[in-house]
Every structure is written in C-alpha cells, then in structure tokens.
Design goal:
heterodimer; A: 152 residues; mainly alpha; 6 helices; 80% helix; 0% strand; B: 1005 residues; Beta-Lactamase; Helix Hairpins; Heat Shock Protein 90; 5 domains; 7-stranded mixed β-sheet; 6-stranded antiparallel β-sheet; histidine phosphotransfer kinase activity (chain A); phosphoprotein (chain A); cytoplasm (chain A)
Amino acid sequence: MDVVNQMQRQFVDYSTSLHREGILDDQFTQLQKLQDENSPDFVVEVASLFFEDCEKLINNMARALEQQGVDFKQVDASVHQLKGSSSSIGAVQVKNVCIAFRSFCEAQNREGCLRCLQQVTHEYSLLKNKLQTLFRLEQQILAAGGSIPVIE
Amino acid sequence: MGRKLQQSQHQHHSVAVKVNEQMGTKRGYTFIQSNRAWLPKFLLLWVMVMAFISTWIYKKMDADNKVRRKEVLSSMCDQRARMLQDQFCVSVNTVHALAILVSTFLYFKNPSAIDRETFAEYTARTAFERPLLSGVAYAERVVHSEREEFERQHGWTIKTMEREPSPIREEYAPVIFSQETVSYIESLDMMSGEEDQENILRSRATGKAVLTSPFRLLGSHHLGVVLTFPVYKFMLPTRPTAEERIEATAGYLGGAFDVESLVENLLGQLAGNQAILVNVYDITNSSDPLIMYGHQNQDGDLALVHQSKLDFGDPFRKHQMICRYHQKAPTSWTALTTAFLFFVICLLVGYILYGAAIHIVEVEDDFHEMQELKVRAEAADVAKSQFLATVSHEIRTPMNGILGMLALLLDTDLSSTQRDYAQTAQVCGKALITLINEVLDRAKIEAGKLELETVPFNLRSIFDDVLSLFSEKSRNKGVELAVFISDKVPELIIGDPGRFRQIITNLVGNSVKFTERGHIFVKVLLAENEKPVTEVKSENYLNGGPDEGVLISGARHFKTLSGYEAADEQNSWDHFNHLVMEEESRYDASINMEVADKASRGVTLMVSVEDTGIGIPLIAQDRVFMPFMQADSSTSRNYGGTGIGLSITKCLVELMGGHIGFISRPQVGSTFSFTTHFESCKKASYNDTKKPVSEDLPSGFTGLKAIVVDGKPVRAAVTRYHLKRLGILVEFANSVKIAASASRQNGSSCGSKIRPDIILVEKDLWLSGEDGGSSLQMFDGKQNGHVFKLPKVILLATNITSAELEKAKAAGFADTVIMKPMRASMVAACLQQALGIGKKRQPGKLMLNGSPVIQGLLCGKKILVVDDNMVNRRVAAGALKKFGAAVECAESGKAALKLLQLPHCFDACFMDIQMPEMDGFEATRRIRMMESQANERMHGCIKEDSASRGEWHVPILAMTADVIHATSDECLKCGMDGYVSKPFEEENLYQAVAKFFKSNPISVS
C-alpha cells in the first residue's frame, strides 16, 4: 500500500509540476474529470488523438514551409487546427506558440514561421514526453491496484 | 487573444473613422467662413470705393458751388452794366438836349438868345440833371477864314490845348461857352487835340453823340471820357447825308464824363459792392483795351471773370465791363464736411461689417472646434465604455478562476487561519466580481448595448426571491422587511425579470445597508392607483403637516409598518387603508371588466421601497443617481459599496420606460419609488407555452380562514397579502382578546363571516400587549367547551430568541414560528407544518449549481457535435457524454448536413464555427433552410406531430473560442440559438442548454 501511496503522491506531484511549469492548464484537469468508469481511457485516448493530430499537422506545416512559394494560408489553417486541439487538451505552451505562429503567418514571415515551427515541435515533444510519463505513472498505479488521485 | 486584440484595434480604428466622418460632414462652412482670407481685401476695397465716392461727392458739390458763384457773378455784373448803361444814356440824353437848346437859342434865334453867362448859368442850374458830367462846354466851328473875325469878336485868340495861340489850321473849334466847373477850357481849340478832333469830325458826320477814349480829365485827375454832340445851325433834312451834316454844323457841345466817379457812385448804391471787383474797359481797339475804371493790376479771383457788354450809344466805341470776385472762391466747407462725414460713416460701417464678419468667423471657428471636441469627447466616452466593457470582461474570466479555486481550496483540509484567509479572499473576490458586473452593466447601458428581454414572469415570486435574499441580513439587524403587492397587479407580466430583479435588489439592498432599525417596506401598485393617494397626501399635509405621529408612552409612534417614522407618508396607514379599501371595492366591482381589458394593454407599476434608515443628506440628494457618488465619502467607509448601483437602477428603470425618484429625510429614512411599464400577459395564452415561471404555491390552503392579530394595520395588510396569495381568507384583530372573542362568537352566532382556522399573532403585540404571555389560554378554555376544531395559533416574528420561543411554546403557540420577512412559499411551508396538512414537498427544484441538474437536462438526449478538429471533437463528445447525452460526431459542415437530413432524431447540435470548406454559420443557414422547407410542406398537409414540437427546429449552439459580442450576434443572425465558449465549462454549458431542455423536465428519473 505504501508503494501505491508513494506512487500516488508522485503522480500528484508530477501533475502539479506540469501545471506549475505552465505546460498544462485547467483544461487538462477538466479532461481528467471527464474520465470515469464509462470511459476509463478517455484522457489517454484524447491525448493520443492529439499526438497523432499534432504530428500530422507539424509534418504538413514543415512541408508547406519548405516549398518555394509558401502557401501561408495552408500553414495558417494547420496552425489554427493545432491551436484548437492544444487548447482543448490544455497544452498551454503549444497553444501560446501557435498564437505567435499565426501572427507570423499573417505577416507572411517565413523566418518567423520556421522558428515557430521549431518551437512547436520542441514544445510538442516535451509535452509528449511529460504526458507519456504521466500516463505511465497512471498505469503503474492502476496496475498496483490503486486509484488515480483526483487533482483539484 | 490575438484575434480579439485585432478586433479591438479594428474597433478603435472604426471609432476614429467615424469621428473623421462626423467631422467631415459637420464642417459645413458658411460663405463668410469659406472666404475668410478675402475679408481684409474686401475691407480695403470698400474703403477705396468709399473714398472714391466721397471725392466724387465733394467734386460735385464744389462744381455746383462754382456754377452758382458764376451765376451770381454774371447776374451782378450784368445788373451793374445795365445800370451804368442806363445812367449813361440819361446823361447823354441831357447833353443831347443841351445841344438842341444851344442850337435852338444860339442859331435859330436871331439874334441869338444865349450868351456866355446865360449858358454858364443855365448849365450850372441844370447840373443836377447831369450828375455824371463834370461839366459841359460849347465850341463853335470856326473855319480859318473866319478866325480873325472870330478872335476879334471875342477878344481872345484861339489857343491850343497847351494854351498857346493856335497855329493855323483849316478849321478851329474854340470853346465859347462853358459850365463854370470847366471854365478853364474856354478859348481852347478842341480841334487841337488829336483825339478831340477826330471825335468832333466823327460826331458831325454822324450827328450822334461820340465818345472819346478815356483819359485823365484836366480838373480832377479822374479817368473820364468826353462826349461830343454836333450842333447844327439849321434844321436838317430828314435823311441828311454826311456832307449835309458837315455843312450844317455850327459847333460842338461836349461834356466830360467822370467815369470813375460815375461807376463809383453806381456801385456804391448796390449791395455786394465789396464782394466784386468791377473794371470798365474801352475795347474799341480790341488788342489794347483801355481801362476806364478800376485798377489795371488789382488782384482778385482771376479764375472767374464775367464780361458784360456796355453800349454807351456810340457805335464806334465799344465798352465792356469785367467783374471779378474780390476774393478767391472760399473752399466749400459744406462740401468738404459732407464728403468727409460720408467717408467717415462709410469707413465705420465698413469696419463694423468687417468686425462682424471677423467675429462670425471666430465664433464659427469656435463652434467647429467645440463640435470637434464634442465629437471627440463622445468618442472618448464610447471608447471608455468599450474599454470598461472589455476590461471588465477580461477581468471577470480570471476572477472566476480565482473564485473557483478558492472554493476548491475551502473544500480541502485547512487550518482555521488558512480557512479564514481563504474565506476572506473569497468574499473579496465576490465583491470584486459584483463590482465588475455592475461596471459592465453600466458600460453596457451607456454603450446602448443592453437589450431588455420580453418574457412573461411572475412579479410576486420575484419579490419573494429578493426578499429571501435579504431576509438573513434584515433578520440579523432586527429590521422588518415586508412586501405588499396590490391585488390589481396582474400575476404575470411581460418584461425583463432579470433586470427588474436587479432594480429591486439594488434598492432593497441599499435600504438594508443603510437601515439599522425600523423597517423596509416594498410596495407595488398599479400606477393608476397612485393618483388618488398623492392627492390625499397633499391634503394631509395641508391639514396636519407631516407630524402625524401619535405620542405613545413617551416615544413617537407612526402608523407605518414598524412604527418608525418614514420619509414619505404614503405608506402610513391612513393612506394605505384608503388605498386598500378603495382597491377592494373596486376590485370586486370591476373584476370582470379588468380581466377583459388587462389582456390587451400594458400595465404601469408603481414600486416604492421605503426604509427608516439614515436617509440621504440634503446636499447629496441631487447627485444620488450619478455614478460613483455616494452621499459622502464617509458613507463608503462605513457602509462600503461604490455608489454605482443607483445609477444603474436609474438607467434600467428608464430603459423600462419608467421614472425613479425618492423622498428622503436625514435620520428619518428614504423612500425610493419608481414606475415601470410592462405588457400584461394573458394567462390563457401563456399557459399554452411553458410553465416554469408561474408561481408554484401549494393550493391546499384555499378556503381556510385566518385572523391576523396585529396592532399595526400596515403590517397586518402585508400579512394578509401573503395569506391571500395562498387562498386564505383573512380578518384583522387589534388584540388577542378580540381575536379570541371573534372565534368564540363564530361558534354561536353570525357576528362575523369566518370562523378562524388559524390565528396569527404578531410577536411584538403578544409580548408588549396587556395580554401578557398566557393569554392563549383564552382560546384553549373556550375551545375545550366546543366541538369546533381548535384554531392553530402561530407567532409572527422578525427575530426571536430561544427564550422567547420557549415562552411562546409554553403559551400554547404552535411549534412553528413564521419568521419575517414573509414569503408566500415560506408561509405555506410553515402552515403545512403547523396544520399538519400532509403535503409532500413538491418534486423540488433541483439544485441549480450541481451537475445533477445538467445531467438531468442532457440525459438521454441525442446530440450532434460538429467540429473539424479531431481532438476538440473528442473532448466535446466526452464532456457531453459525461452529462449523459448520446453523442454523435461529424467532422465537417457537410457531414453534419447529411446527418441532419429530415427526419432525424437529434435533440441538439453543437457546431464549431471555424471549419474549412463550410463554416458553422453556413452550415446552420443551410440546416435552417432545410427545416423551413420541411415545415412549409408540413403545414401544407395535416399537421402531423412527428417531433413532439409543432415544427422542425433543432437547437444549434455555436462552439467558439472567442466570445466577442459580434460573434454571438452573428451566431443569432444566421439562425443559431446560442453559443458555448470552448473549452466547455459546466456552468456555461448548463446555461446554454437549459433554455432548450428546461421545458421537458426529466420525468424519467
């Protein structure tokens, strides 16, 4: 039981640290709240959807930006999508970069866009790592027979 | 956020543009304004023109003067010439006469009848006839052959003018007779002078008077002329030739004219002698005029000369008179002053006009400047409101987060200090939110963005709600809070309940805040009732003045709700009674009629909130409704608050088409009253639609009878009002005794109509009254003897201590004490408890803030979520599923359209706005189009109730990240029913969804 407790505390600490670092926000907590017996893997499901979406979008953007005549509209649409997804999942950092990204898109600033793309990729991979760690912790807790503590 | 910022920038820009436009259109310059640069030039031109005109005037007047002067001169000159001529002629004639005399007496008589002495005497004596002649003389014609004899005969030799013996000549003309004055020329030969000789020859040839050219006369050294007449020795034939005349010539008569004195005399007789200068010339030789009179070189006005011809009777000689003015023409002062004055006047007029024009220009400049400033100020005001709205909105969001977090924090395990801190923070946060909401309201109202709803609502339940809001506070303060609504006020009215509640809450809240004792009394009447009351009121003032207090036990008691004096006597019993009585009589009589016509017209309500608080200082009374003004700065220190509430209230009241006003007396209290206009609602039509707002009071009390024991009639009326709403018949009693006797009588006789089921006793009366604590035995005693049911005796109290409660119980009161402020529902609950009417609580309203509500709302509903973003879609679906809804997803507007092809079984649709291909607006528009087509088709055939509603209309809610007003407007425009901000928040979601699903409450669960 101690192990479970410890893991639970670790889980809480970790997720609060994510919040504190500004990687995640309240929206993620909301998502966690939505998860119940009917949909036990809701958060993981959404997160993996998000990852998929993200990778696809980032690839799209990278491709679009590589081309000679950059179609900023297309990039902008992708960024918009990404912004929507990230705000849905509560990925604040990604969302913030997206906001800057969009303004560069509007200004048709390729340099800025590329810089932002880099940042987005960076933030995304960071988030992905962190979330995967979190989920792993969750899995471990569940495997140990504990329950996921609710983070307020 | 980026978008929002952009939008706001855009708004600012548009404001600026608007300002410019306004300025552009308003810059209508007048003629003067647009030609301002020309003004000095105009002035200069004017001055020049005027100078020209005045010179012209001067010249004209001067010319006129000159002409007149010339005329004067010529007339004077002519006159003088004529006179001179006449005088001369007269003299000539006398000389002529003399000549004839000589010829007659010297030659025709033989011997001659005239000699030297005779001639001298005669001439001397007739000299008066010839004033112009210095003298006359007669010279005889002597030819040379006769000379010697002549000399001998006369005894002297003929001498020349130089008084020498005359040389030999062919002919002589020695003077033989002479007037005494010229006797010195006797014996002189007139022929010896060249000129005289010529004269003589000419005269004898023509037979007429002949003049010499002027010369200095011998005696006086005046200029003169000699006039010569021939004397014939016999009568001439009628037409004598020159030879005949010469032949007949016997001698010559001459006279010397002293022209100078002649003219002198003449001029002396005439007026204006000084003004003009007269010269007389002999101009026989025109190249060398000889002066006869006047000085050759006299100065005078050489510019103006008049010449007049003179005819002295000698055709050979020509004379003329030349007149001049003595002095040069004087400068014409009249002309000069006239012209000058004209110029000055014109100059002044011009300057005045110029000044006026300049002034106009300045004023217009100022005006334009003011206008510009006004526009700018207005723009600034609008911008301020917008800014306030935006900022408040922006603040609200994080504040909600703070509050939420605080609430969560309070739920956790906290030490008491921590809890205290957190609670304080929460209270502060709530206060801040309230303030922000108020500011937002105010800004909205100012920006004209506040729109009032028009939905039917129950007025009475709103008042009950508001009262319950403040009941705790008022109870703690010991202030009596009561509401009374006239029976005539219709139950359901159409208007904006939220805003109406806000008004009431503001006013009552204020009253509660500022009242420490006494009461707060809310009264609602139909405005038409108000008139008789105000009349009565003014009468009362006339009769007794405001001091209508009755002295009871040393303290003033007023017939108001609590007995304290109120600022406005309208609520005191005299008026109130009057009102209530009138109302009752009228109500019964006209009930049918009123039902009939109330349905059609609007109602104007008159609401007054009376308190017995600290009142408003007189100096502050006129700025009560100004925002952020409290009576004085100490007020906010003592009582808190921002002072924005009343200004919002005023705005709201005015939006509702009413007026607000107040009467306040410091230390006595204030009465705020306002009117609002509502549409009355036909109950029948209303029942068809929805039912949530109608009053759900239990109906089990209908027909019960009650006696209210209260010494204060106003309070009793309030109690009755609440009981009446429950269907209970009410009678009043002033004391417990009376009530008891009433209930007794009812058993035996027909004294009163009712036999009470309930007796309500006011706590104050019970405690203070002479009945003391045990009087209830009266009821018991009597009741035991009768078969009648025991009436329940219930205590009414504002606040009650546990000791008092015990005492009451001991005295036989029912367990229940009805705590004030009274509300119909609360009274109902108490009565149920007291009477033991086994009413179950109605399937009570669900708690609004818990998720069970929303779960109930959404449970079993089928909802379509349309979003192109996979993650969003999943999250939304998850959230909705969590609330029990069955969710289906569509990833584009097109897919949604396909799914929503009629008939479908979706209860609602959540639609993202920004989607590629077809955005949410477009999709909604198409869905609506589809629906309306289907509806039309359905109306064509017999109405088939396929979707439990009459028509197809699936609620569509926009999901959007930005909740700017414009977006929401657009949502509604394209047919959406509302919007939910992303990401979902429970409350937000509930609010949006509640509108549609509230009507079918969950009967399932």
